[in-house]
C-alpha cells in the first residue's frame, strides 16, 4: 500500500498542467497534516512536477524531458529575473522557444515575434499587445506596469506578462546564462539514461530458494541478482559466491548479502563508475526514494557510456572542457606527445589574477589521464591527489606540465606531475590511481 507521501505525489502528478496548489489545499484534499503535505510538495518540486514562484505560489508544470532541458519555462524565467507576474498566470508552465529584444519599430518587431517566444521590451504598451496577439509572452524591463486591457488579453490567451526592475541587457544576460547552464546539465549522463529497467531486470524475492537462483542463472546467463521483498524494496543482493556449498532448498534471504549499495536514477554515471571500481562491484540496483527497485546498472554499461561520452563534443563549456580543449590544441602543435602546454585564461584565475587551485587540480588530473591513456593503460580513477606546493601563476602565462610514472602495475599507478612557468617549477603533485582497463 502506498504511503501518504506517495499518495500526495500521485495526486499532484494527476493535476492538470498550470493548476495552482497549496499546502493547505493538499492537506485538506488528502486528509493529511500540513507538514506531510509541505514535504511532499517540496519533493514534487525536486522531481519537476511543480514550480514555486515568489508572489505567485506553486503551480503544476510539465516535466522536462532530457532532449528539451535546454529550454526554460516562463515560471523559471520569473524566478531567474526576480519578476512580478502581471497577467497570464495560467501559462507560466509553458516553455519558451526563444527570446526577442524589442529594441526596434513595431512593424519590424512583428517579423521576429512568434508563438512560444518571449518579447523583452520596456514601457511600450503597443508592443505588449502585439506580442500577446501573436502568441508570445512579454517581459517588461525597468519595473514598468502595463494597461489593464493588456493584462486581460494575457489572461485570455494564457500567456504570462512579467515585470522586472532589471534593464534589458541585464535580463537578456541572465536568461542566456540560465540556458547555458541547462545545456551543461543536458550533457551530464545520469543513471536513468543507461539503466536496464525493472521490466528487463532479473531479480529474486526473499522467499525464493537457492534452486530459483540456479534457474535464473540458466535463463539469463548472469550470476548476480538484486533481492527484493513483496513490495519490491531492495533488501539484498546475491551472487555465486553467496550460494557456494549451500542447500538448494535454503531461502535466498538466509544466504544473500544484506544492505547492498544502491544508487538513485539521478546519480551521475561518473559517480557510479568510481563507486564500482572502489568497491569492486559488477552491478548496482537502482532504486527510487522509497528504496524500491527501478532497474540495474552494470559496470560494462557504465564504462561503455563513459568512453562514448569522451568522444562527443559538449555544447555548454565548463572549466573542465576549456582545459581539455587547450590540451587538445597544444598536443596537435608539438611533436612530443608528452609535452603538455597550457595558457592561463581569465576564466581560470582567482580574484588575485593568478591560476585558481581548482583549475590547477583539474589540469593535473587531465594530464595524468591522457599520459596513461597514451601508454594504453586505460582510464584512471583517482584514489588520492596530493599537491605539494603551488606558486602564483599569472594571467596569460604559458605553463608546461610534465608527468612521470613512478610506479605502475596492472591495476594501479603512481604518477608524479611537475608544472613549470618560464622555466621555474611552480607546482608539483602526486597521484595514486586505479586503472580501468579498456
From TrEMBL:
The keyword Coiled coil does not apply. Residues 195-254, 256-314 form the CBS domain. Keywords: CBS domain. SUPFAM superfamilies: CBS-domain pair, HprK N-terminal domain-like, Thioesterase/thiol ester dehydrase-isomerase, Winged helix' DNA-binding domain. PROSITE patterns: CBS. This is Thioesterase. Pfam families: 4HBT, CBS, DRTGG. InterPro entries: CBS_dom, CBS_dom_sf, Diverse_CBS-Domain, DRTGG, HotDog_dom_sf, Ser_kin/Pase_Hpr-like_N_sf, Thioestr_dom, WH-like_DNA-bd_sf.
